[in-house]
Design brief:
Length: 278
C-alpha cells in the first residue's frame, strides 16, 4: 500500500511562550501543498526502511520511529521529494503516512485519538499530517483543529538549499519576538465567515520565527530578495525555514515566479486528497 506524504506551509506561525519542558507554545495555521514524498509499506520482514536518499535511511528516521511507537514491523520504501530540514514538514509527514499505512495494512483499527497520541510521541508536527488540508495547530503542535479547506491557491517555494535545525531556530528566538496568537485566531474567524475562503482577502500572513531564522541563515535574506525581484508580493518563511513561499495569483504566475527565482510552483492540497491511501 502506498501513501503520498504531502509537505506543508505555515500560513501563520505565532510563538506565544516557552513551556517548562523546553518546548514552545505555538498557534499556527498549516496548509498541505502538493510537493510530496511517496511511502510504501510491504507487510513482510523485520522493520526496515529503504530510501532513495540513502543518508536518510537511518534508525532515527521518523518513519521507523513511528513504527516502533506502534510496535509494528514491515518493509518501508520512501521516495523523497520534500527537502529535509527545510521547514516543509517532510519528515513529520512521512511519519504520519507511516502511522496511517500501518493502521490500514495491518487493520489495527486505531481510533483518531490513538493515532494522534502516537503522532505526538514521534514529533510536534506529525499530528497535523493526520488531518491535512487547512488546520489550526496549537500547544506544542499536538492540538489540531481541522478547518474548512481554503480555496485552491498556487504558491512558489524557494529553498535556499541549506538545512536549518528547528531546535536551533527556537533556541535563537528572543521572547521579544513572541506573538499573541491573535493573527492566527483572526484567520480562523475569517475562514469561518466565508466559504470557500480565499487567502487573497485574508488577514496578513505572519511567522514569528522569521527574524531568528534569518540571523542563523542569512541565505534566507538573499532568497527573499530573489523572490521579490521575480515579482512575488506576499513572501513568508515556512515553519522554522529556511524555505520561503510566495503567494501567486494563479498557476501561470506561480510557474513564472518559480522560473525567474529558481523555485518550485506548488498548489494547496485539500484534506480529502491529502488523506487518500492507494
Ligand atoms: O518535536 P520536534 O522533535 O519536531 O521538535 C524539534 C525541536 O524544535 C525541539 O527539540 C524543540 O527544540 C523545538 N520545538 C519547540 N517548540 C515546539 C516544537 C519544537 O521548541 N512547539
Amino acid at each position: 500500500m502506498l501513501a503520498r506524504a504531502f509537505a506543508k506551509v505555515n500560513l501563520t506561525l505565532e510563538i506565544t511562550g516557552r513551556r517548562p519542558d523546553g518546548y514552545h507554545e505555538l498557534v499556527s495555521i498549516m496548509q498541505t501543498i502538493d510537493l510530496a514524498d511517496e511511502l510504501e509499506l510491504l507487510p513482510e520482514g523485520q522493520l526496515s526502511l529503504e530510501c532513495d536518499r540513502s543518508e536518510l535511511a537511518t534508525s532515527d528516521n521518523l518513519v521507523l520511529r513511528a513504527a516502533r511507537v506502534l510496535g509494528q514491523t514491515g518493509t518501508f520504501r520512501l521516495r523523497k521529494r520534500i527537502p529535509a530540514a527545510a521547514g516543509l514538514g517532510g519528515g513529520s509527514s512521512d511519519a504520519a503516512a507511516a502511522l496511517r499505512l500501518l493502521d490500514a495494512v495491518y487493520r489495527l483499527g486505531l481510533s483518531a485519538q490513538q493515532l494522534a497520541g502516537a503522532a505526538a510521541e514521534v514529533g510536534s508536527d506529525v499530528t497535523f499530517f493526520l488531518t491535512g488540508g487547512t488546520a489550526l495547530v496549537e500547544g506544542r503542535g499536538e492540538r489540531v483543529t481541522a478547518l474548512l479547506d481554503l480555496k485552491a491557491r498556487w504558491v512558489v517555494l524557494l529553498n535556499p538549499g541549506l538545512p536549518l535545525s528547528t531546535a536551533a531556530v527556537f533556541g535563537e528566538l528572543a521572547p521579544a519576538e513572541y506573538g499573541t496568537g491573535g493573527v492566527s485566531r483572526g484567520y480562523v474567524s475569517y475562514l469561518e465567515s466565508v466559504t470557500p475562503a480565499d487567502l487573497a482577502a485574508a488577514p496578513p500572513l505572519i511567522n514569528n520565527l522569521e527574524a531568528a531564522a534569518e540571523r542563523l541563515a542569512p541565505a534566507i535574506v538573499a532568497a527573499r530578495r530573489r523572490l521579490r525581484e521575480a515579482g512575488a508580493e506576499h513572501i513568508l518563511l515556512s515553519g522554522s525555514g529556511p524555505t520561503l513561499f510566495g503567494l501567486a495569483k494563479d498557476e501561470d504566475q506561480a510557474r513564472t515566479l518559480a522560473r525567474k527565482a529558481g523555485g518550485l510552483p506548488a498548489r494547496f492540497v485539500r484534506r480529502e486528497e491529502a488523506l487518500r491511501l492507494g
